[in-house]
Amino acid sequence: MWSPSVNLKFCLLNAENLFLLFDAPPSPELVTRTESAWQKNSTSQYENKSLRKCQALARTLLEVDADIVMLCEVGGLESLQNFNQLFLKGAYSPALMEGNSDRNIDVGFLIRKGSPFYFDLLSNKSRSINYLYPHERESLAQGYPIKAQSHRFSRDAVELKLFQQNRENPFLIVLLTHLKSRLDKDKVDPGGFERRQAELKTLLEIHQELETKYPNTPQVVCGDFNGNAGFHQPDEEFRPLYETTKLKDALEIDQVPQSERWTFCQIRSGARSEGRQIDFSFLNPAAAAKLKKQSAHIYRYKNETGIEIDPPQNLEAKFLLPSDHYPMVFELENLKAF
Length: 338
Known about the structure:
Shape: globular
Radius of gyration: 20 Å
CATH topology: Deoxyribonuclease I, Chain A
Number of strands: 14
Largest sheet: 6 strands, mixed
């Protein structure tokens, strides 16, 4: 039976190379094996995420107990399905569409089974980001052909629409992305700046198109932005977010202290650790009005006894974490489903 209003808890997380690919359908007893035996069940070119890290990640998600988990760096739908079945007791419906990643890391969702809504998923992986690298622009200027007239998202920008009786009237829209990293292996775009900026601008175009089509619908624009997109001194590529939209970070709306917003630890030379927020959940005004007060926070990983793990001070400690990113959690309440 449908409810006229819905309360939802969200968790955003870059799960760091969540590959779970097996040569045969995995059985529950797999999770009781040693790490060596665990890895031997796959001959995929992609190494499965370690058993220990999967178990720790599952403990985290089961404790957070979100209705919708928004994930980056998932090794395809099969990996997400296997993680849900082996570690989350099949509590969620996995939803993922393969994107453009050359590392086969996609963005996807876990949606709690039995939730009082249906959902639609739409990919924007084929959408142009209206960008060419400098050497490609130079080739065009000199009259030389290039492979394509524009690039596309490095991964994707996936639209999740929640609805009850009318799929043309969603009561919530989530736009999930994973923007270009700072890696520049081909030495054509220092720090990935131009490509990331182009992807951000296209993401905002999609957001604004959705706002035009659904002017009163709460919308969440979230993901791994691979840079400081926060309100306070954002990196240059993210300035259009504040110049052209009314989106606000859930942590900013809830006035979470700056010192508690970091989602990623950068280990500097000399074993110095620097916490940075690079994962964001931006809310449009309609969604911001539904944010449950004091619900937005960054979850800190715990050990098997439930004690919070200190921030990593070196690469060895960072490697032991379930992921190199920390989950962001927030709640929206009284979403009007009709």
